[in-house]
Each structure stands twice: as structure tokens, then as C-alpha cells.
Amino acid sequence: MSTPSPVLVDIKFNPEGVARVLKTAFADRGSINLADPADRMRDLRAAEYALVWKPDADLFNRAPNLKVIFSGGAGVDHIICMDGLPDIPIVRFVDRSLTTRMSEWVVMQCLMHLRGQYAHDSHQRRREWAKLIAPEAAEVTVGVMGLGVLGQDAVVKLKVMGFNVIGWSRTPKEIDGVETFDARQLDGFLAKTDILVGLLPLTPDTTGFYGSGLFKKLRRDGALGRPVFINAGRGRSQVEADIVSAIRDGILGGASLDVFEVEPLASDNPLWELENVFITPHDAAVSEENALFRHVETQIARFERGEPLEFVVDRAAGY
């Protein structure tokens, strides 16, 4: 019996954590970690599986015999447009922990805008005892854009908190107890939305999608007074100059952003200091290495048993 080929790993986040977990991951076949100087110049022609996040541009030339590519995160826009991308399956990272973390962040941000947390923080810093009267969650409609694994879980958690929740996706989706809209019904969806939650993947259609034209179509007579934009999907889906101007002009009442057009966010970016804007450094749902490697091991085992891979990317759709 031939020795299983090691898993090729080219991940550009948390190198210390990746190296630590790789010591015990893939016990039956081992790994080649391109972040390790000892592995950097290895011959990769025997590699059959690659786990990548923002891989080196020449990776697929160096590893011409890959059978499956695994994304190190839920998104695949860092792979899908690469030169020399082989015509083999690309598998997204889907994991209970990652999904739960994302929903926690989304629910937290919606609650902070519902309860005026920015104003409370400002009052606290000034030592002001200033009570606020907030609407109840049931008075506020949260519109979730993107109804994949992450979006559907966020919908469920937001409903538990009492929000009125509606959903939008490019193609029709059905969720029990939730009004859903598709691409043809975008304006109707926006007109009902007080808090817009962006969980869309990055595709040519969603690049620059969240801009001034869209913000102006959000509901303006709801319990919050002015609509709020929350994005934890992809940074290049938003036009940050439009977010800044929409908040300054009162078109948006606030925002919560975990992703940005360029990361890290520049220290002179006006988003840092805008009122009622919460910034987090793309850590709403970080990939946990143990779970990531378990996911890859499970999918490789399925593939080698002749079973279909799960979470395979539709290249035509881009996700």
C-alpha cells in the first residue's frame, strides 16, 4: 500500500497556532507547512490535497497534481480568481464553532444598536447618568442578506432574541416562519429593513454592493428612526466612502463593521471616529485551527471512500 501524501498547508493567518496544531493533525499522512522555513522549498509535486488561505501565487504551478483544494475559511474569493487555478473541487470551511461565533457577533451588534450602547458608552466616559428609552426587539426588522449556513443560523438566533427577521438571497430560499426575498425583490426587502446585516460572499455581483444607492432604500420610518448597516461578510462588498457619507448625512443612523476594503483598516480612516459606529478587526468568526483541520480530515476521508465531498464551491456562482 502506498504512503498517503501529506496535506499541503499554505495559510496566512496565526502561524504560531497553525504550527502548534499541525504537530498532531493529519497523523496518518503528515503535512507540509509552507510557513515553516524547513518546508518552504519542498518539492510539492506529490501533494494531492492543499489547505490554503491567501496562498502563494505560484502554489498551483509547484503542486500540479492536487485533487482537492480546501479553503482555510468560509470565503473562497482569495482562491477563485487565482491564475493557474486547477479544475478540481474547492471546499469551503463550514463548522459549528465558526457559525456560532458569527451569529454571536451579529446578535451582539443588533442588540447594541437596539439599546443605544454607543450613547451609553459616551455617557459613561463623561460620568453622566442619562437613561435611554429603547424600542423592543419586536418593533425592529432585521434584514439578513445571504442565507447560507451563516445567514440561516443568524436568522434563527435573531428570532430567539425577539427581532422581526426577514431574509434576502440571490436565488429563492425558504425558511420556516421567515419572509424571504430574492434578487428580483431587492427593493421590497430593503424598504422593510431597519437593520441590514450583510453576510454575502464576495462575487463580481456583490463587489461594491453596499453603497449609497442601497442605503437610501432602507426603511426610514421604523422604531430606530434611521437604518443601521452591519457587515461581517466581505469588505470589498461595501463602499466605505459611501458608509462615511451616509452616516454624516443622516442616511444611516449607525454601522457595525468587521470587514473592510483594505485590511488592516488605516489609522486615518474616518470610520474609526464616526458616531454610533462599532469597528472589530475581522475577528467576528475566526477559523479555529483544530476545527479546521478536523474538517479537512473528515472531507479527505469521505473523498477517499468514494463519497461526495461536502460544501463544494459552485465556481459559476463564486461561492
TrEMBL record:
Q: Which residues form a coiled coil?
A: none
Q: Does the keyword Magnesium apply?
A: no
Q: Which domain of life is it from?
A: Bacteria
Q: Sorted alphabetically, which CDD domains does this protein's record hold?
A: GDH_like_2
UniProt keyword terms in alphabetical order: NAD, Oxidoreductase
Q: Which residues form the D-isomer specific 2-hydroxyacid dehydrogenase NAD-binding domain?
A: 108-282
Q: Which Pfam families match?
A: 2-Hacid_dh_C
The record's section on InterPro entries has: D-isomer_DH_NAD-bd, NAD(P)-bd_dom_sf
Q: What is this protein called?
A: Glyoxylate/hydroxypyruvate reductase A
